[in-house]
Amino acid sequence: MSTEKTAAPVLDTNPQELRRILGTAPPGAWIALSHDKMRVVGTGVSAQAAIYQAHLQGESAPVLVQMPSEDEEMAAGTI
Question: In this structure, is the dihedral angle defined by the CA atoms of residues 60, 64, 36 and 5, taken in order, positive or negative?
Answer without folding.
Answer: positive
